[in-house]
Structure formats: structure tokens, C-alpha cells
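Slide 14.
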Amino acid sequence: MRLFSFIRTIPQPLLYLLYGVIVFFLWVFDSLTGPDLSFLVFYLVPILMATWFSGKLAGRIFAIICAAAWFFSDVLSHSSYSQPLVPYWNVTVKFCVFLIVVEILWRLKDALAAEKELARKDGLTGAANRRSFFESGLIEIDRMHRYKHTFSLAYIDLDDFKGINDTMGHDTGDLVLRTVSETIIKNIRSTDIFARLGGDEFVLLLSETGVEQAQAVVDKLHAALDERMNRARWPVSFSIGVMTFIRSPSSVDELIRKADALMYAAKREGKNRVKYSVWKESGSVV
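Slide 15: predicted structure.
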């Protein structure tokens, strides 16, 4: 795994050079050993590497290069065949095998990526799940340590959501949660991190966002959510706590606790409102 991580750090031009060097040495050894030893399996190495680390097109390109290298090493060995078309048939078959391997590996990689993505998402709403949010939160805290970037966290709770489940049924409750998620995702940037922590509680991490920017975003979001609930005639409102972090919290748990406390303050003041605050090293300033 460490080797894979290291290879991913290599710039693509150098990776292409690496694949080419591997093919060159394979061709040299293949030419020197003659037809007695088959290098078919070894030619798959640069093809597999190119497909996995550089993409399907790169895999196809090196499938062509490896097939050509095998063909010319075969020609240089002056092998005798019963028919003059035999080497052309052989190289065509090997090229087809290489292409099939590229296709299988690329589909496997796609399937693994899709499975990994699903493991990071909440199955009901499509938002990031709790585990994924904690991973992203750690990255954001680390970025703040490195670059001193301010960020904000909004903790969003649905007021009176239990009444929806009790009076309209859990199917309607699930639809409300999905609608909330869809509305929020439509109104945020691709760089923002939106997650469902559980039940009817969501968090929205606004990267590189100060107090005024966070207020503009969340006020717009709150209005969009209210409008969507009113249109569907669902008696649901939103209490939101928004903490802007000027200094880095010690952990993701602390990050959540600060915004969560603001959200509960909004509930105590009558629900359906947003509370804003700033977290500094010395404490929280409203």
C-alpha cells in the first residue's frame, strides 16, 4: 500500500517515462532470450500500472506499445513459422488479450471506487455519513494549522421532526430528510462538506469561510429550506448553530460540540432561527 501511495505522488509525465523504461528493458531481455522463453506475463506489468495509475487510455496505449515490442523481438529472433502470417496472428491475439486485461482492470477499479464512495455516504439522504465527516473534519483542522484558514460549521436540526413521523408516518419522515439533503446540496459549493450525523441532525462545514460569508450562505440556505417545507406543507422548521473558527479546535468532537451548543441555544430562544458565534483561542465571542 505504501508503494501505491508513493507511485500516486509521481507526476504523470514521469510515470509514462517509467512505463516506457519497463517496456524497453522487457523488449531487450525478450530479444536476447529468443522465442524459448515467453515474456507475455511480464509485458502485462507496465500495462496494468498504466491502467491503474494513469487511466484507461494510458492502458490502451501501452497495450499497443507492448504488443509492438513483442512483435519486433519475435522478428529479431528470426523464428521460423509454418506460415508467414503466423507472427501477425500471434501479435493480434496478444494485443486483444492486453486490451481485455485493460478493460477488466479498469472496471474493477471503477467498482472499487464506487464501493468506497457508497461507504462514505448516508444511505437514506445521499449526504456524507458521520465517519466521512470526521475524516474531512480532521483534514480541515490540519489545513487550518498549516495555512491559518478560517472556516465555519453549521449544525442543523429539524424542529418537531418527531411529529412528522408520528402523524404522517416514517415514509414521509424519510422523504423530508431526503428533501432537506437535496435542498442543501443544491445551495452549497462543491468544496463544502455536508453530512448527516444521525436522525434529523446535519452538519455543514464551510471551508475558508469567515463570519460574514457564513451568515450570507446560511441565511440563504435557511430561507430555501423554509420555502421547500412550506411548499410541501410539512410543519418542519430549522434551528441552526453556526460557529466560525478563527483558531483551530482541538478535535472534530470539539468542532461539533461548539456548533451543537449554538443550535440548542437557538432552540431555547424559540426554534426556527440561526445563532452565530466566533470561536477564538480564548473562547467564544457572540
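Speaker note: The chain has a mean pLDDT of 89.
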